[in-house]
Design goal:
This protein has 578 residues and is an alpha/beta fold. The protein has three domains: 245 residues, Alpha-Beta Complex (2-enoyl-CoA Hydratase, Chain A, domain 1); 236 residues, 2-enoyl-CoA Hydratase, Chain A, domain 1, CATH 3.90.226; 44 residues, no CATH class. It is 37% helix and 19% strand. Strand 15 and strand 16 form a beta hairpin. The radius of gyration is 26 Å and the shape is globular.
Length: 578
């Protein structure tokens, strides 16, 4: 029973795509990826070279330089929330200002052989202050650390709230104060937190590192509830913020910090030593002697598998074949709910569950010889992924959801079959799972199907999007039809014979469709935190290597069964084809 029957999946690209298709798909994707990289580069510059030079003149590194110095040599950096506040401008008395990345860098990387979450104030953007959505972005990164039980590192250089916009970041349910609640929750479950304080840490910026298990301060850092500028008589008393709350005070008098270090380099070295003292990773034990291996079919080919038109289908099994080690996969219940693929493969040597929407026509089990469109949830598919999701949760296997869905089946037959009830069953499953879940929006993320496939409202540990992803209740054309339904016939053609009225309806429908299509831009979703990160399809394997290993890193925090006692084996036997 311990044997996990992994079988080859997928085929060489030239077996299912013609050269011109590869060229067309790749050329279309390159346009998206060039835009993605250009926008990443723009955000990474913060407020630009002028402010980077100011930071260097103070003898300090920028946030990105600190992150680069902190990570293990050659370790990947996987950002989270890069595009928060993308395209948002803040009016400051007729002058517009931007907060690239909401003024904070959050990422996963490896330090001392362990995956960690890093939260670093971007000191080139208003001295690392918190803008609208900065607290929520920080809290989201803390949630990743909390869900995976991996160390959280704070690189603090924060002058507190950006006061002109304080009303949008101070008082709300997830406002700045909620950061400190997350600090406390991480501490309560024993997640290591290590903070380096590098500069101005005022008000909330001063509170953020305090609950950490270890706090290091550089010689030019200070932590204060209120700086010298707000203390009456500070000038005549010759008080400075450094004198009020610098390392001399907090290391030697208040004990709010543990050690003082001369500069950024020494502080980052100290943080690395602290992370090295945390518990080692349990991932090697869970691999059971099986080393990580690349897919047989290169992950880079993922950038050429998706047609430019989102209505054109692709083979999701070929996607999985470029994500799992050696392109080996155990597909369960393949003869039931054929609009869905569920199964287990190894990623980075570690068992991982996959749930994916099948695109294109699939056989209709209730009408022999007929087919129905894929990318839709039908009764059998819903039941199939509910049971698989529950089994993975029971067995402690992390789940990757590859979502490309138009929604639920509709109509009289669907309602009579109780799709509402089956959907509720799936919603309950995903709401109560404790195993780590990661959702990837490949293309379409529509309607209640987006929820059912573990969309962000169901709190996956992380939700990733490709540049092709489209989040909406309805596609633009569908919503335009719904909005003008009373003006259309049964075939959705304009019913009016009046030329002027027909023109007005056509223009109105086109305007609705255009607006909805614009709203479905993944950068808008990322800007308002409706997805965590935008990545290229070819980057997905690397992200999953990180996320799956991080899922197995902590030991003893969640149930992880050995394969001999997986409930998946029982599910396979009880549903095998006869």
């Amino acid at each position: 029973m311990a044997f996990v029957p992994l079988h080859p999946i997928g085929s060489a690209r030239d077996a299912f795509l013609e050269p011109d298709e590869v060229s067309r798909n790749g050329s279309s994707m390159v346009e998206h990826l060039d835009l993605l990289q250009a926008r990443r580069d723009q955000i990474r510059q913060g407020w630009g070279k002028k402010y980077q030079d100011r930071t260097h003149a103070k003898g300090k590194m920028t946030a990105w330089e600190r992150l680069e110095a902190l990570r293990d040599p050659g370790a990947p950096i996987h950002p989270i929330g890069t595009f928060v506040n993308w395209g948002v401008e803040f009016d400051q008395g007729g002058r517009t200002m931007k907060a690239p990345g909401a003024g904070v860098v959050t990422a996963l990387t490896r330090v001392a052989g362990r995956w960690v979450v890093v939260i670093a104030n971007d000191n080139t953007v208003a001295s690392g202050s918190w803008w609208p959505q900065s607290p929520e972005k920080i809290e989201r990164a803390q949630e990743v650390g909390l869900n995976l039980r991996i160390p959280v590192v704070y690189l603090v250089d924060c002058s507190g709230l950006f006061l002109p916009e304080q009303a949008k970041s101070f008082p709300g349910r997830y406002g700045a104060g909620h950061i400190f609640k997350k600090n406390s929750q991480l501490s309560a479950v024993g997640v290591p937190q290590v903070a380096g304080v590098f500069g101005d840490c005022i008000a909330g910026g001063g509170y953020m590192p305090i609950i950490s298990d270890r706090v290091y301060m550089t010689e030019q850092a200070y932590m204060v509830i209120a700086g010298a500028a707000l203390i009456k008589g500070a000038k005549s008393q010759k008080l400075t913020s450094l004198g009020i709350g610098g390392p001399e005070v907090h290391v030697h008098q208040s004990a709010c910090a543990d050690e003082r270090v001369p500069d950024d380099v020494a502080c980052l070295a100290a943080i690395r030593r602290e992370i090295a003292r945390t518990a080692s990773s349990g991932a090697d034990f869970r691999r059971g002697g099986v080393m990580s291996a690349a897919p047989q079919y290169p992950a880079q080919e993922l950038d050429t598998l998706f047609p430019p038109d989102h209505r054109t289908y692709y083979d999701v099994r070929e996607v999985i074949a470029r994500l799992v080690d050696r392109s080996l996969f155990w597909e369960l219940m393949p003869h039931r709910g054929k609009e869905m693929v569920v199964g287990v493969g190894r990623v980075n040597g570690l068992y991982t569950g996959f749930i994916a929407n099948v695109q294109g026509p699939v056989a209709d089990p209730h009408h022999r010889g007929k087919v129905k469109p894929g990318g839709i949830l039908y009764r059998e598919g819903i039941a199939k992924i509910s049971q698989f999701s529950r089994a993975c949760n029971s067995d402690g296997i992390p789940i990757v959801w590859l979502q490309d869905i138009s929604g639920f089946d509709i109509g009289t037959e669907a309602e009579a079959q109780g799709l509402l009830g089956y959907g509720s069953n799936l919603i309950y499953t995903n709401s109560t799972n404790t195993t780590p879940m990661f959702t990837v929006l490949m293309r379409k993320a529509s309607g209640a199907g987006y929820y059912a496939m573990a969309g962000l409202p169901y709190e996956p540990t992380l939700q990733l999007s490709t540049p092709l992803s489209r989040q909406s209740v309805m596609e633009g054309r569908t919503l335009a039809i719904a909005a003008y339904n009373t003006k259309l016939d049964d075939d959705f053609n304009i019913a009016s014979e009046n030329a002027a009225e027909r023109e007005a309806i056509e223009k109105g429908m086109a305007a609705v469709e255009s607006r909805i299509e614009g709203d479905m831009d993944p950068y808008i979703a990322a800007s308002q935190r409706d997805t965590d990160e935008i990545i290229s399809p070819s980057e997905l394997r690397s992200y999953l290597e990180c996320l799956i290993e991080a899922s197995y890193q902590n030991q003893g925090s969640r149930r992880i069964k050995n394969p001999r006692i997986w409930s998946l084996h029982d599910l396979d036997v009880l549903t095998e084809s006869v």
